Amino acid sequence: MGKGFYSVMGAQFFSSLADNALLLVCIYYLTILAAPDWISPLLKLFFVLSYVLLAPFVGAFADAYPKGRVMFYTNVLKVCGCALLFTGIHPLFAYALVGLGAAAYSPAKYGILTEIVEAKKLVVANGWVEGLTVSSIILGVMLGSFLTSKHFTEYFMGPQILKTMPISLVVAICVLILVYGVAAVINLLIPDTGARYGEQAHSPLRLVQDFAQCCKILWQDRLGQITLAATTIAWGVGAALQFIILKWASVHLDMSVSRASLLLGVFAIGMTVGAVIAARSLPLNRSLEVLRLRYAISGLIILMAFTHTLQFGYLWLILAGTITGYFIVPMNALLQHRGYVLLSAGHSIAVQNFNENLAILLFIGFYALLLKLNLPIDSVMLIVAGLTFVLLHLVARRNVYNQKNFDSLALINEQKKLNAQHDAM
């Protein structure tokens, strides 16, 4: 893959590691502040809000400068978000600033893959990205769990050096700032690929118009609309599941937040397995076959509602994670390839992020509303499962309709053309 690719992977690993650990640390901070239960899901909502609001601008930003430099600046912004917690600001707003950095980071991270990796290797490259991202989720959850554990908080007993923050929380935040710093340093090792996309628009109105046009192009494309819809739904459901698993473990298994967060690591292990299997077994032109998994995804969420033992819980989490990873990796790769053909690297990823994170906002907001209505977690899971099946089934039906009017061999021809362009460079 080349040295630049592995530098991107290393930076992504440490940045994602800190993102996931920080979520648990912020949830712990909310418990210290005695915030109500329905506030915790809003952390994710505030985090992804920037992905939606800044989508018209971050794609142009990622295409205007070398992407390694963009990734460095955005990691520095994440450091600032962490440090802001020391001022006593509410965790929602500090995590929102970290989300702003993540929103600007993502188009550069995924966009650079299309610059340094041949189209025929995009599924494998995405397998690397998702595998390392999931690994960072596992270790990030473990790190966050450790930083909020009773053992850690009792070890750092002492006078409060900040008004609303025990010293253990101060140390935890300093650890995460250090991890973000490591990611920023690795960003400096990413070489300039030499890819340039012409002068980018500077007027906010023009950027919004350009972004709207990019969205229109991708949504009207018979192949682009399917991959975009599928990944959008998958990420929305996945974000809700992150909080559902924590609540389910608390209600069904009587686990604390620190212990229950480790179950997210088990789910992430399954995602790693699914990502590896997909990267090795599914070529780009067979990616749409994973739409058949809609039955399994919905069924496993229903099964979770009737699981009350830790042993079956582990089995469910591994299976659900594996199927999720197997579903997301090829769809992401196909969407990136299609977006690169129709648009540009940064703009196509910005469109993808906008739609996926809008779905995350909707699913997390819907989940918070169900909690606000005091519905039991079992009912919440059944509702989410039913909604997931209906949405993915509609996507699958649309794909069948499109295939009658779209020759899928055109994808292979475009792939060969793109490969020839890479070889000529």
What does this 3D model show about the protein?
The protein has 425 residues and is mainly alpha-helical. Helices cover 80% and strands 0% of the residues. The protein has helices at 3-32, 40-53, 55-64, 67-84, 91-116, 122-147, 150-155, 167-187, 204-220, 224-252, 257-281, 294-305, 310-342, 345-372, 377-403, 409-424. Helix 3 (55-64) packs across helix 9 (204-220) and helix 5 (91-116) runs antiparallel to helix 14 (345-372). It starts with a helix and ends with a helix. The model has no long low-confidence stretch (mean pLDDT 80).
Which shape, going by the Cα principal axes? Answer: globular
Supply Rg.
21 Å
> Helix count?
16
Largest sheet: none
Number of strands: 0
Sequence of secondary-structure elements: HHHHHHHHHHHHHHHH
Helix percentage: over 70%
- Rounded mean pLDDT is 80
Distance between the termini: 16 Å
Query: Unreliable runs, pLDDT <50, ≥5 residues?
Result: none
Feature tags:
425 residues; mainly alpha; 80% helix; 0% strand
Gist of the model:
The chain is mainly alpha-helical and 425 residues long.
Fold topology:
Layout: H1 3-32, H2 40-53, H3 55-64, H4 67-84, H5 91-116, H6 122-147, H7 150-155, H8 167-187, H9 204-220, H10 224-252, H11 257-281, H12 294-305, H13 310-342, H14 345-372, H15 377-403, H16 409-424
Helix pairs in contact: 1-5, 1-6, 1-8, 2-5, 2-14, 3-5, 3-9, 3-14, 4-5, 4-8, 5-14, 6-11, 6-13, 9-14, 10-11, 10-13, 10-14, 10-15, 11-13, 12-13, 12-15, 13-14
